[in-house]
């Protein structure tokens, strides 16, 4: 098989990277910052292009995944990107406005302002799992903030990369928005450029390389990383409702979602009921799996193999594996893996050590819910946490006593789609935020500006200090 990015392609991309970076820097220095009208026009152009090319993008993602549900691409990638664009178009003029700030008493009648300004050339590194939304979400924020943008697409989504590059090239000059393709060598060169800000979405491990490379130029980074997002179900929450919502979040994009529920903790008496309800939910969602258009495949053979090895490891160490395969079909050759529950999972199993990033769901039980909160707090801080409970004071307690990038109460995943909530991890699941105004702020310099008044009250502090020595 031909390598996706043969060496000569890398050389071309490295040359493009260097030339385009130079061009974008020059353009940023020479041209005036875009006005609100220009930014809105750019965002509108992007929205229209996205809507006009929706089917090409859906097809491109499908070929990268082997199979990806068209509805999932529209619902999880295109519509959230359009929502981000609309939010930015609606508010960018007010986000850009200089804001009055207070003046310390001794300095009155001077005045203060905070003036948001573009940073310059922004680099965005994109993973493969939602290649459109994770390229366009940051792009929208960076454009709203008035920057130039270079995007490095994932080597695992070459078709989507090409489709997105063509769409952007048709509407933006490359000194404004440019797309780079390539594997690890190109990615390393990309992250070594002296960007004015870099937003990386990907694994925690690669995030460390990106931050190290950025440190050489003191490039600020926003890291959107992964981790194991737990689900905790309170003792009296209806299991059928929880199971249905959790299994939706675990099977959308076949669990290849950074905020997918990674494992579930529920009262020990409810385990069997959860298994039955999970089976029923999957049977409702996907009566069949193999040829089902709605059920997405695993991105490639390497990840398929990785997930199967988690199941083999868990089984060898004593876990009970329950595939939820309603028609009992063979999935060989489809690239798909059936949604699978893992009971009796223990901490020595890969499935409890690694981010799963696939349709496998370990189900743990507790006798005392406080133990589960301790378990969560004893493990690396997750990107998301899900808590199912209708009891307000217990909900407040869990939200207050746990640390995670974000929380959805009584559902999973959906906090990510809220334009007015900051999205980002904490500790090993990431740093910094974007979405809506949080994205605009991430890609802006908040410049503090002080305007001295005609009446200078500071003359009293000028030397000679003789008389002042009595007071100061
Ligand atoms: P990855 O870290 O392997 O790759 C991400 C990107 O980094 C790719 O474009 C890749 O080419 C590039 N890259 C690879 N090596 C590099 C290096 N040494 N220096 C610079 N860049 C390099 O991640 P992936 O497999 O594409 O995506 C899956 C991971 O992403 C999961 O851990 C998931 O949780 C995480 N993720 C996080 C979010 C979020 O918003 N927090 C969203 C989606 C995915």
UniProtKB/TrEMBL annotation:
Q: Which GO terms describe its cellular component?
A: cytoplasm
Domain named Aldehyde dehydrogenase is located at 14-448
InterPro entries named in the record: Ald_DH/histidinol_DH, Ald_DH_C, Ald_DH_CS_GLU, Ald_DH_N, Aldehyde_DH_dom, Aldehyde_DH_NAD(P)
Q: Where is the active site?
A: 224, 258
Instruction: Please name the Gene3D superfamilies in this protein's record.
Output: Aldehyde Dehydrogenase, Chain A, domain 1 (3.40.605.10), Aldehyde Dehydrogenase, Chain A, domain 2 (3.40.309.10)
Determine the domain of life of the protein's source. Bacteria
Xref: SUPFAM superfamilies: ALDH-like (SSF53720)
Pfam families assigned: Aldedh
Q: Name one GO molecular function term.
A: aldehyde dehydrogenase (NAD+) activity
Give the record's GO biological process terms.
aldehyde metabolic process
This protein's UniProt keywords:
NAD, Oxidoreductase
Instruction: Please name the PROSITE patterns in this protein's record.
Output: ALDEHYDE_DEHYDR_GLU
**In which family does this protein belong, per the annotation?**
Belongs to the aldehyde dehydrogenase family.
Name under which the protein is recorded: Aldehyde dehydrogenase
